[in-house]
């Protein structure tokens, strides 16, 4: 099986590659990435890309159709990956996360790719009251990032798929250890706080709900979607990916981290204005369709892996929110050094047009 993974040099890609190598014997892995975060390694003895048979470097907006030739599946991870980046680079977020994503799917369909897997997000539920959100419930996006995911899903649903099976995995909030760890995710941030300073400061009042999923369990779901037949959910499927037990309030996450890192204090700003981003999610459809691929890691296991991984690195940076492990900070440094243009293309490639 030949599998193309876009955005493979980010947070999810290294874990996914290792998982696929373990679970799918004889697969050919091909990566395609801009390389923005290639240097942001965490406790990795070798480059994760050694797991790939071939690595392409390029802007996803310029993907050449030749890259997809002969592919059985495309896993589309490439994106401007969170709310802060989406807020600062709103126009680019639409170009990359939506317009380019639709184009990649079109190219995949023309190349007779059997399965196209789109990394979507439960963040599209935004602010939701009245119980866990199902796939049939209305969305309420509060950010450019969330709007881009909905826009892409809607476009994919209306496409002439030409025999390609499309799976939009609406992932819960990611967490867990990776070769390219992100510390701009809520649980990862809390563990980094506990390890470096022994204190977790919750900037909100702690009441917002967040569904979580470990990055290894994201890989588990992607492995299912790569081979999903249309008889399991239809030619087009958008499905919430997570586990019902992993709907947590932010304050509970902080307390769980404190319990795993002895001596950690938790401070909650009870006077903070409510965080509108609060939603619980129903994962029953995924459980029914993919019972052998539902998340397996517990919250305690994810926290333990993060704690042990950071400890093994000797990680002690109390100012980690300004470190390379915060994706927005890395982009800002590239821009300040003149390596990136404002449209988030490498300097000198600003006028390159997609073929």
Q: Can you walk through the features of this model?
A:
The structure is a single chain. The chain has 355 residues and is α/β, with parallel strands linked by helices. The protein has a single domain, classed as Rossmann fold (3-Layer(aba) Sandwich). It is 34% helix and 17% strand. It contains ten helices and twelve strands. The strands form three sheets. It has a seven-stranded parallel sheet, with helices on both faces. A three-stranded mixed sheet has the order 7-9-11. A two-stranded parallel ribbon has the order 8-12. β5, α4 and β6 form a beta-alpha-beta unit. α5 packs parallel to α7 and α5 crosses α9. The longest helix has 21 residues. The mean pLDDT is 93.
Overall geometry: globular
CATH superfamily: NAD(P)-binding Rossmann-like Domain
User: How helical, in percent, are the residues?
Assistant: 25-40%
- Give the integer mean of the pLDDT values: 93
Return the CATH topology. Rossmann fold
Q: What integer value in Å does the Rg equal?
A: 19 Å
Strand order of the largest sheet: 3-2-1-4-5-6-10
Write the H/E string, N to C. EHEEEHHEHEEHEEHEEHEHHH
Q: What's the domain count?
A: 1
Low-confidence stretches: none
Strand percentage lies at 15-25%
By CATH, the architecture is named 3-Layer(aba) Sandwich
The CATH class label is Alpha Beta
What structural class results from the helix and strand content? alpha/beta
Largest sheet: 7 strands, parallel
Count of individual helical segments: 10
Number of strands: 12
Distance between the amino and carboxyl termini: 27 Å
